[in-house]
Amino acid sequence: MCGSAGVMYWADGGLDKIETAYLNGTGRRTLLRETSVHFYYALLRDADNIYFTDWRYVYVCKFSPETNLIVE
User: Fold this and answer.
1) Phi and psi, residue 5, nearest 5°
2) pLDDT given for residue 47 in this prediction
3) What CATH number is attached to the domain comprising 16?
4) Which of 11, 12, 30, 56 could bridge 40 with an S-S bond, Cβ 3.0-4.6 Å?
């Protein structure tokens, strides 16, 4: 998923984390890392938050990269 200013976001269910980087490959960093097994399915970025789904849950999670908190 690509965001504004040439930034992409992706989830790695095998490593239980959501990451970001610039499209040129620089600036890679982990935004969210969970300690339990997750099955991330989809990501959506708006101006302030990242929304994601997990196959194990019936709701959409909202994550704020600004505060590093999952908001329910």
Assistant:
1) 60, 30
2) 83
3) 2.40.10
4) 11
Number of domains in the chain: 1
Indicate the SS3 state at residue 5.
helix
| E strands, the chain, in order | 7-12, 17-22, 29-33, 40-45, 50-54, 61-64, 69-71
Domain that holds residue 44: 4-71
**Residue 57: which H helix or E strand, with range?**
none
pTM for the model: 0.74
Task: Collapse the DSSP code of 29 into the 3-class scheme (helix H, G, I; strand E, B; otherwise coil) and give the result.
Answer: strand
Tokens of 26: 């620089």
pLDDT of 2 > 60? The answer is: no
- CA dist 18 and 9 (Å) reads 7
